[in-house]
Amino acid sequence: MGFVGVIVTFAGFLLAAASVGISSSTTVRLGLVVVGIIISLVGIMGVINPAYQKNAVWKK
Amino acid sequence: MKTRIIRRVALAFSIMWCLALAGVVYAQAPAAAAPEPAAAAQAPAAAPVPITDADIKNAPTPKPEEKTAGDPGGAITGNPADIPVGDMKKGLTIQDVVGAVGQNIVATNFVWTLVTGFLVMFMQAGFAIVETGLARAKNANHTMMMNFMVYGVGMLAYWLIGFAIQMGGVAPNSNLGGLAPLNHEFTMHVFGKDWGLFGTQGVMLGGHTYDVGVMVMFLFQMVFMDTALTIVTGTAAERWKYSAFVISSFIMGAFTYPLYGNWAWGGGWLQMLGSNYGLGHGYADFAGSGVVHAVGGITALAMAIIIGPRIGKFRRDGTPNAIPGHDIVIVLLGCFILAFGWFGFNPGSTLGAATNGNLRISSVAVNTMLAGMAGSFGAMYYMWMRYGKPDASMTGNGLLAGLVAITAPSGFVNPMGSVIIGLVAGVLCALSVEFVERVLKLDDVVGAISVHGTNGIWGVISVGLFADGKSNYGGAWSGVPGSVTGLFYGDAGQLVAQLIGVATLIGCVFTISFVINAVVEVIWGHRVTAKIELDGLDIPEMGALGYPEFVLKPEPAMEA
Lengths: 60, 560
Fold this sequence. Notes:
The structure holds 2 protein chains of 2 kinds. Chain A has one domain (2-59). By secondary structure, chain A is an all-alpha fold. Chain A has helices at residues 2-22, 26-53. Chain B is mainly α. Chain B has a single domain, classed as Ammonium transporter AmtB like domains (Ammonium transporter fold), CATH 1.10.3430. Helices cover 60% and strands 2% of the residues of chain B. Chain B has helices spanning 2-28, 38-42, 53-57, 64-68, 94-134, 140-167, 212-235, 242-265, 273-277, 289-307, 328-345, 361-387, 392-407, 415-439, 448-466, 475-478, 492-523, 530-535, 538-542, and strands spanning 185-190, 193-199. A two-stranded antiparallel ribbon of chain B has the order 1-2. The chains are: A mainly alpha, B mainly alpha. Chain A binds chain B through residues 2, 6, 9-21, 24, 26-27, 29-30, 33-34, 36-37, 39-41, 43-45, 48-49, 52-53, 55-59, and chain B through 190-192, 273, 276-279, 301, 305-306, 308-309, 311, 313-316, 318, 440-442, 492-493, 495-496, 499-500, 502-504, 506-508, 510-511, 514-515, 518, 530.
């Protein structure tokens, strides 16, 4: 799952960076960038971290 | 009791929102138009009278007997006789004077940038004692040595390749004499524009980059890079294998930090979002809330996930145990040292004190101190209201959070904006520490993820909100004329550029840092054994105790 999380996290960045080429509207770019940031945060906090927490030292 | 606490918290938030609102209202008030100079409006200026060599020769110089009598008032020291003459037969000429003026400007900028760089270097001492004070006595030698050697390890990596990647295509820079040897940026054509990805000049400071201006730039950028690296050691303290720390820090100094540094400061694609895509002045990060602090904080987050919490940090039900540091006195002393060093960090980022709008250094310095103050107040007040005591370590972290947050906007905002940014940073720091510990269940020994990561990102965003369009910076850096202006002053595009920077930090820098450290984990291993961790890392890892004459108490049993 950690690998999936990395992909999701990076995909969020790609969407945000691509926003400048997708639209010339500031509002649309803003929306795409915010969505990109949320995707990346989900990748880190929702996928990668839980995957590593499964084997946390305090659970043993 | 509970109602009283709720009331206090509500009161605190009310006051903060009032302050924030006042700031926003203040920010949105239209600035009065600058009055036209009366003389310029009424009559054309008189034509300038050219200065001749004769004027120069006739300029008054003190007589030898005046100089031998001493100059207690400082009125005759520094006069035309002190200007070096190119040709003794001709005497002093306009060329000599003009040459001296040009060199004086660059010399002033050199001295300013070097001295502020020395201040930033001293921040390593602050980081070292903050982190060591927040660690337990049994790990003092190990924590101190990580902070000590991150300077050397990082510098070696940066000298070998990092500086070239970050600044190898940064030319021109008129403050430091042009930096002409740093003249090649590797680019990729994307969406119809060239995206700068990394520089190529300056490997080991060899070849044409053996240049006085390049040396100034190297020193200043090197100490910034080391600041980012030392943030990670704070998060992973008390369980990080020393050899793994050396490997990880070397890679970060060589690649991870320089890459983002290039994109933001070295002529890379983030910096050019304004000129290429009309997003304000492109990503603007005056002194590195994003480049230095968020890169360090985001890498610390990746490390915290990979390395896991210290034994005893969490109970079996997942609730956290407090593991107090061994010396709060040196923690707060370290915070003061860092606040002092920040006067190098932010004002020094003008890369000069003369010409090019650099007199703004006074504003940058005041913004820095105000935001630090507001940050410490925000954190102290939050802790006081929430827990009944003004927690010392969190107040210290609040000071640092305010300083971190103001680092990016310090060159672009006014004092009111600085206080709001700092105040928000202080509260945000305390909230973030709780979130990281209680929700993410990560163990961050010094709170670096919150202080540097969360507030580094807040600092980047705040440029897009509070930049008042009054500074002289930005245009020369990003190819867009005019000053950096945030959303509250009418430029929404700047906020988008800042958010793209944030997305890059969270999505790209995190990914790079995570993958690199995950590979190190597989090949080498980051964490010491449980026995070493419980005994303390000083003897097994470093071969000596930090405090050999102290009697260390056995580890108290943590509540299961």
